[in-house]
Design a protein that fits this description.
This protein has 16 helices and no strands. It is mostly helical. It has one domain. Helix 2 runs parallel beside helix 4. The termini are far apart.
Length: 327
């Protein structure tokens, strides 16, 4: 395409069937950016699936829809991250009977020596490798935190009365994804204990993996929000949900399917966690209502060919089923 001025980009859009004109839309294009805005939002999920926009107003409405979703989700995900870390920390300390990281490695982290009785040699080796990866990752966290003079960590190394960094300080500086990896390295008994403390339905979770698998799913959404990436079409999703991830929510919500291919499934997962964490039902219902309002407003702002691509046709039925769960 070559370099184009804003006026040139507007002409380019008009030449491609997008009605755009006037100082207001020119300002919107400047503020949202041609590449971040139009290029980023002109397709749904994958670049081959172009959305049939007719006007720049529809593109701008899509950008605003995405922005409002990110604002709506952010504080809920941050709450869930903080709460799950707090519950997990209590579980870890109760099981280790110590706040020493080395004791955690020895007592509740799976390894070659404390693998399940049914584990074969290769599975034992895999567990041992995971433990070594975890130790390396945690050491990297501590080195980086000390180098950057993070007060949460420096305090323990620079004080002669302390014996190393405690587990709780480590958890404070871990990202959600790496924290989930640490949970995945725990013994199955520890993961079961944590799942029970949270209240996760274990009926379809034979291997007790949901406690960290769901965090991986939320981590992808959290990172997309934090980096202002597109979320409305779930292009941020990096993992395919396991059978247990789908089955648990299907059983809990009474849904025919869950696949995390639409943003509605992430709303369902967020609500599941908020419910488990004993958040007031009125607050959760208000969150769902806000999602509905934002979505309905968006549907009215774009042509039907666009809204039918972006909004899954069974979303209202799924939201109604979610409401029944929250009663």
């Amino acid at each position: 395409m070559g370099y184009k001025t804003i006026d040139g980009l507007m002409r380019h859009l008009r030449n491609n069937g997008i009605a755009i004109s006037g100082s207001k839309q020119k300002r919107q294009l400047v503020n949202t950016g041609y590449f971040h805005g139009y290029k980023g939002y002109r397709y749904f999920g994958k670049s081959q699936k172009r959305l049939p926009f007719l006007t720049y107003d529809e593109i701008n409405s899509t950008i605003q829809y995405d922005t409002k979703l990110k604002s709506l989700f952010y504080d809920k995900i941050m709450f869930i991250e903080t709460a799950i870390k707090s519950v997990a920390l209590e579980c870890i300390l109760d099981n280790v009977k110590s706040e020493n990281i080395q004791d955690m490695y020895r007592i509740i982290v799976s390894s070659y020596n404390n693998a399940p009785i049914t584990a074969g040699v290769e599975e034992k080796k895999k567990l041992q490798q995971n433990k070594l990866n975890l130790q390396s990752m945690i050491q990297s966290y501590l080195v980086k935190a000390y180098r950057s003079n993070n007060p949460k960590i420096v305090h323990f190394y620079n004080n002669m009365s302390y014996q190393g960094v405690p587990i709780w300080a480590l958890v404070e500086i871990m990202t959600l994804g790496d924290f989930a990896f640490m949970l995945s390295c725990f013994t199955i008994d520890t993961r079961e204990d944590l799942s029970k403390r949270i209240g996760i339905n274990l009926a379809s979770d034979t291997n007790r993996e949901l406690v960290y698998k769901y965090l991986y799913a939320l981590k992808d959404l959290r990172n997309a929000i934090a980096h202002n990436d597109v979320v409305f079409d779930t292009r941020f999703r990096k993992i395919d949900p396991t059978k247990s991830m789908k089955k648990c929510l299907e059983l809990e919500m009474g849904l025919p399917y869950v696949n995390f291919k639409t943003i509605g499934d992430y709303v369902i997962l967020i609500c599941y966690y908020l419910h488990l964490l004993k958040v007031n039902k009125t607050e959760i219902k208000a969150f769902v209502k806000s999602f509905e309002r934002i979505t309905n407003d968006y549907q009215k702002a774009v042509n039907k060919n666009v809204s039918s691509e972006v909004i899954h046709p069974d979303l209202p039925a799924r939201i109604n089923q979610l409401r029944k769960y929250l009663k």
